[in-house]
Amino acid sequence: MDTSDILKKVRKIEIKTRGLSQNIFAGQYHSAFKGRGMAFAEVREYQFGDDVRDIDWNVTARFRRPYVKVYEEERELTVILLIDVSGSLQFGTSHQTKNDMVTEIASTIAFSAIQNNDKIGVIFFSDRIEKYIPPQKGRRHILYIIRELLDFHAKSKKTDVGLGIEYLTRVMKRRCTAFLISDFYNNGKSIEKELQIANKKHDVMALQVYDKRDRLLPDIGLMKVSDAESGHEMYIDTSSRKIREAHSRYWERREEDIRTSFAKSNVDWVSVATDEDYVKSMLILFSSRNK
Predict the structure, then answer these.
(1) Residue of 180, 148, 149, 176 lying closest to 164 (CA atoms)
(2) Which helix (H) or strand (E) covers residue 237, if one does?
(3) Running DSSP on this structure, what letter comes out for residue 25?
(4) pLDDT (tens digit per residue) in 66-125
(5) pLDDT tens digits for 43-83?
(6) How far is CA 269 from each of CA 110, 213, 278, 279, 283, rounded to the nearest angstrom?
(7) Of residues 63, 139, 93, the one with CA closest to residue 238
(8) CA–CA separation, 270 vs 285, rounded Å?
(9) Which residues contact 129 (CB under 8 A, 6 or more apart)?
(10) Residue 258 pLDDT greater than 80, yes or no
(11) How far apart, in whole angstroms, are the C-alpha atoms of residue 53 and residue 69?
């Protein structure tokens, strides 16, 4: 992709995703994530209408009447996009690849962040840390991130999601809000331990991007398939009901493992297909944070 093509695509992405972040996500983002960046200030007696989740039970027990914690909003949040750039993200059977959707989702989050005066950075990972962009503010920084999302070429096609999460824990010294965006094809390796450690230090949430053919095989006869990460190619007979059902069972087992890992790690997450509207999924994720 030459420079002029990249600039055109950057501009197109900016127009679409900045509009979304301004018109749809601004309030949702602020209430869902800005409130998480709070510093404890003092306690006071409970008043009607206070959130019971803010009750300080130690002080309440000591004085035998309810007291709540009072917080001051921190000046800014630090947002980290933890982006999977492995080979499987290049797959797509609809009008876009998984990577195309990841780029739009990440760009929308980025514009939402700078509208709230937050810093934003990016960690690109495969089965290695491909690139780290330290958090900064400003439109120029966002456009640099979008250019990288559009034209980044990973050195490896393989995946190690746990490695990316470990790097987040190691490189980010202060608490941040992290969006883990991946298709979670992780070669059968669990990420539960890494998620639990990261989510104790930071506020981690996940967005799973998948293609409908990841979930269901079409009945179209003999089909050549290739593993985008290993390069292995083979022919399968999709007219076989057993093969299609085996493929679906494999998908369901993977999904159950992913759901379990997120649940045990207390990580909020949503899943969106490349032929679906990611706006709806992101709003579901944001609104779940306000419950």
Answers:
(1) 180
(2) strand 233-237
(3) I
(4) 988 876 555 568 999 999 999 988 877 767 889 989 999 999 888 888 877 889 999 999
(5) 888 887 778 888 889 989 988 999 888 765 555 689 999 99
(6) 18, 21, 13, 14, 11
(7) 93
(8) 6
(9) 123, 163, 164, 167
(10) yes
(11) 9
Q: What is the DSSP string of 139-176?
A: HHHHHHHHHHHHH---S-----HHHHHHHHHHH--S--
Closest listed residue to residue 268, CA positions, set 256, 285, 282: 285
Q: How far is CA 197 from the centre of its chain?
A: 17
Tokens, residue 26: 């601004």
Type and span of the H or E element at 4: helix 3-20
Residue 51, phi-psi category: left (phi > 0), alpha (psi -120 to 50), beta (remainder): beta
Confidence of residue 227 (pLDDT cuts 50, 70, 90): low
Rounded CA gap, 85 and 153, in Å?
Answer: 8
| Four-point Cα dihedral 181, 137, 73, 81, nearest 10 | 10
Whether 230 shows a pLDDT value over 80: the answer reads: no
Model pTM above 0.70? yes
